[in-house]
Amino acid sequence: MTDNDTPPDLGSALAFIFAELIDGPPRGQAYMLNQGDEGLLRSLERVDWKAANQSAVGGAPIAQHVEHLRYGISLMNRWVGGEENPFEGADWGHAWTTAVGSEQEWTDLRAALAREVEAWKEQLGSVGTGAGMPRRAIRGLIGSVAHLAYHMGAIRQIDRATRGPTDAESHAAMEA
Question: Is the overall model pTM greater than 0.70, yes or no?
Answer without folding.
Answer: yes
